[in-house]
Protein: Inositol monophosphatase family protein
Organism: Companilactobacillus formosensis
Amino acid sequence: MQVDSREIDHFLVQLLAEVGKGLREDSIKKMSVDTKKNRNDLVTNFDKKTEKFVNGKIKEAYPEATIVSEEGYGDLVKDMSGLVFFVDPIDGTMNFVKRGDNFASMIGVYIDGEPLIGAIIDVMDNEIYHGGKEIGLFINEEPIDDPKNLPLVEGLVDVSAPMALSNKFSVQDVIKKSSGFRVYGSAGIIFGHLLTGKEVMYMSYLAPWDLAAGRVMCEAAGMNVASIDGTPINMLESQVVIVGTQKVVSEALKTLKTR
Ligand code: 2AM
Ligand code: CA
């Protein structure tokens, strides 16, 4: 299949700019909050409304594409053939509800299983991280350089709070070898930090829409995106992933106890 990655990139940037504007303008006044699987698994009217809007725009522009998304307006996608869009309308919903910042909206695009273009908007800062291997990476219009391949001892690491607290896979051993530990509550916000070299690793249990856009861009920036047990990443399932500089991911995989 022939696709124009520059055109898709442009489409994603326009779309996320519109999403960001809408969320900044109406969200606080008209928000209603519900729970999903447990009391800390939140969904708002804006998660749903945004996904419906984004998925509609994707179907209009790319009718042949399939969509994997969080809130139920996507398709039942069984394989990665053709053009697949992954949509997380609001990433970091808890931050959105409780803090009003540090949340993102993300879209990742794959072609026949290969990462193509990713885009993440830090909504309140109005910064859009976007691009891919073919066209390079940008924050809004500004190109970004690949982060340095730092080792664990020289960088800050992000680990999901539940994993760090339960010391899953002895992850605290990895944290102790690093410069320090940070928790932000939004995968999208953290991918921005990785892409700009502010942090060197992120480990979490991520759903396909949490990972898709960040994976495209982190791989394009020369970082490694690995599953904890060395199996290939499955974009149609949730899994524990480690994203980081080549050096850090290899050190982390040696340090973690996976059995
Ligand atoms: P969300 O806000 O889109 O649900 C920290 O909570 C990060 O992990 C957020 O990016 C959040 O995305 C995601 N997350 C929270 N609970 C999750 C779960 N059970 N499975 C996968 N990702 C989750
Ligand atoms: Ca979400």
Residues 5-143 form a domain with the Fructose-1,6-Bisphosphatase; Chain A, domain 1 fold (CATH 3.30.540.10). The pocket of calcium ion (ligand 2) is lined by residues 47, 70, 88, 90-91, 93 (CB under 6 Å).
